């Protein structure tokens, strides 16, 4: 009876194996992606070996191993893109994927080999590497430049209208009852002002000629009267 119980316990341990936890890591193409993995190091003798593999953790070792360490240094490296930047002596065996690609997406196994039977620390990571998002700021900037052009035209037209109004108000005669309502009316007022300014000097010259004629006639009459008186 005891032998059957021992056999059942051994089979249970073999089929269940060590406890496996799973984590999800998301990164972007072209960026470095760090897949975390740590184990406890209380004494110098607790430093141990470990491996990273490109698949779920098997019953022993790592499937498709990409990097190995004896706890002190890297002993095997599948590619220079897989690196261990953490402090190995303190149990930081996090994996860094340099310049990640979409092909790097998948399952990664972190296996820390601890002393004793079936005591290995197993962590499965699901790594997802996505493409970087494309910025949409440039179309909005282009639209704002297009909408600014009509605004500048309206401002310039209002400035021209204001200029016409200022000229008409400063040069309009006092007899004008209302200001001009548009550029055409302002042009008519300016033309009337010019005609008025031209007609005033001509009337002054006519009056001066009339006075000169009357004076010359009076002088001739005086001369004739004197001549008759002398004769």
From TrEMBL:
UniProt key word Lipoprotein: no
Coiled-coil intervals, chain numbering: none
Q: Where in the cell is it found?
A: Membrane
Spell out the family assignment given in the record's similarity comment: Belongs to the immunoglobulin superfamily. TIM family.
* One term under GO cellular component: membrane
Ranked from the top, the taxonomy reads:
Eukaryota, Metazoa, Chordata, Craniata, Vertebrata
Q: Which GO terms describe its molecular function?
A: phosphatidylserine binding
Q: Where is this region: Disordered?
A: 139-180
Q: How does it sit in the membrane?
A: Single-pass type I membrane protein
What ranges does the record list as Polar residues composition bias? 164-180
Keyword vocabulary terms for this entry: Disulfide bond, Glycoprotein, Immunoglobulin domain, Membrane, Signal, Transmembrane, Transmembrane helix
Superkingdom: Eukaryota
- Single Gene Ontology BP annotation: apoptotic cell clearance
The residue ranges flagged as biased composition, category Low complexity, are: 147-163
As given in the record, the signal peptide range reads: 1-21
Q: Which SUPFAM superfamilies does UniProt cross-reference here?
A: Immunoglobulin
Q: Where is the Ig-like domain?
A: 30-135
Where are its TM segments located? 209-230
Protein name (database record): HAVR1 protein
Q: Report if keyword Flavoprotein is assigned.
A: no
| Source organism per UniProt | Hylia prasina (green hylia)
> Pfam families annotated for this entry?
V-set
């Amino acid at each position: 009876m005891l032998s059957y119980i021992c056999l059942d316990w051994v089979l249970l341990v073999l089929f269940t194996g060590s406890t496996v936890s799973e984590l999800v890591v998301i990164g972007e193409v072209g960026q470095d992606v760090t897949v975390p993995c740590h184990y406890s190091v209380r004494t110098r003798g607790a430093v141990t070996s470990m491996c990273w593999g490109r698949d779920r953790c098997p019953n022993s070792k790592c499937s498709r191993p990409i990097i190995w360490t004896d706890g002190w240094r890297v002993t095997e490296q599948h590619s220079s893109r897989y690196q261990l930047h953490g402090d190995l002596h303190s149990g930081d065996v996090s994996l860094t994927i340099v310049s990640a690609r979409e092909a790097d997406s998948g399952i990664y196994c972190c296996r820390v080999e601890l002393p004793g039977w079936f005591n290995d620390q197993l962590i499965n990571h699901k790594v997802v590497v996505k493409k970087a998002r494309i910025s949409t700021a440039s179309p909005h900037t282009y639209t704002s430049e297009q909408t600014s052009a009509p605004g500048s035209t309206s401002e310039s037209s209002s400035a021209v209208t204001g200029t016409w109004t200022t000229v008409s108000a400063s040069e309009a005669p006092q007899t004008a009852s209302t200001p001009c309502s548009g550029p055409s009316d302002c042009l008519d007022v300016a033309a009337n002002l010019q005609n008025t300014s031209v007609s005033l000097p001509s009337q002054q010259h006519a009056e001066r000629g009339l006075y000169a004629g009357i004076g010359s006639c009076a002088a001739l009459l005086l001369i004739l009267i004197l001549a008759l008186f002398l004769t």
